[in-house]
Amino acid sequence: MTPNQVTAARVAAAFLAVAIFAIFGRSAAADAIGVALIITAISLDALDGHIARTKNLATPLGAQFDILGDRIIENLFFTFFATSGLITLWVPVIFFARGSITDFLRSAAAKSGKHGFGKNSMLGSAWSRAIVASRASRVAYAALKCLCFCWLALEWTLLRSTPFIVSSAVVSRLDACTAVLTVCVVLFCVLRAIPVIWEGRRFISTHVPVPARPVGASR
Length: 219
What we know:
This protein has helices at residues 3-24, 28-54, 60-83, 90-110, 126-132, 135-161, 168-200. The protein is mainly α.
């Protein structure tokens, strides 16, 4: 299996999880499958990178495809749970805006031969690599997202399947935990964007040369 195939598989798992929650959300078995698919979609993010490194299959296109997979999964889950009323719509908006900005800067860096997380990375400083590309940061971010998505799925299922059994006090506690987890993910997301924005600014030209007008050309 190639890294790109793994990335495609985890995106498919994310869409399947949302489909299961939306269609079979009142079934405990379906809920368990949906949560398992969420964990699979997040966990496979480490597998595609491992395959790319160990089999020497890393390419600039593969790195961009991996990032695209992350964006699709994040926005898919947060948009679904925002439209379900569990979180504010500003969460997927923030993720979409953050992803658009950082991906634009990565695209600009890629034109200069800087891509991925290795020696050709656009991240030149040690502090930026520690925040964005270090194993500790990437594992912690993935684990936090997985926990948040699973919690949202469990809360959504619980409130949908037993709306008259769960007391208002329990709902308040669930909402409080949801808010804390979501805020932590958003803050971590923004924190990891800061180095990319800081390092990526040098790849944006502030001066665009005007093509010379041919001799004799009319004004």
